[in-house]
Amino acid sequence: MEHQSDIAYGNHFLMGYLGRDLSHTGLGLKFDFIVVHESGHEWFGNNITSKDIADMWVHESFTNYSESLFTAYYWGKAAGQQYVNGIRENIENDRPIQGAYGVNQEGSGDMYYKGANMINNIRNAINNDTLFREILRGLNKTFYHQTVTGKQIEQYINEKSGINFDKVYEQYLTTTQIPTFEIKFSKDNKYVSYRYSNCVKGFDMPMVLKSEDAQVQLHPSTEWQKQSLASAAQANLFNPIAIEYQYYLSCKEVH
User: Fold this and answer.
1) Which of 51, 71, 125, 230 is the residue whose CA sits 20 to 30 A from 155?
2) What does residue 80 show for φ and ψ, rounded to 5 degrees?
């Protein structure tokens, strides 16, 4: 475990977590989960520590996502996305990730898997891995050996990314709703309309949909918006399965 003094280890020198693949993809059996995960806590947990256990997602969400970064480093970015996608099977949506403040109450265990997917959503929305890496390193430099609030971490990401993710934090940290991204094609397939539903008021997570052949940047809200489709490649970007793979949400085509 990530104790700041004595180190505890109990994975029996097995690959995965006690021999199990928490990602359900096969990738989790390529490394000793405890060594990788608990090492990640040297940054999020020990270097940066939350003032209130209600914000323990600052420790666990980022450290859980570090497993995906580790996977991507050794086996490629696509493998990292596959890993973080696979851990969604462990999400329960039983209660909010953010706990109650001032009463020594942590939130749901979803702070691990759902929290990591929230961070992955943010990374994909930023669509600049160099900047995303600078944000992770900047967090640890700016808040070096400090106790912080979750709000400080949120505001830092907003400032450095140039994107206001307040509604993303509210959605994924304080509710158990999985937002829905609705899409609707025109009869001639020349444009697509889209919006968010089943979400907090004002939910507006940016999205970047891309493939080898096309890319489109969206700024969805809870109101219908329209996007022209210049090619079949652009239209293919609005495949619900592909969107759900890239972002932790529910995507459906409506008629």
Assistant:
1) 71
2) -60, -40
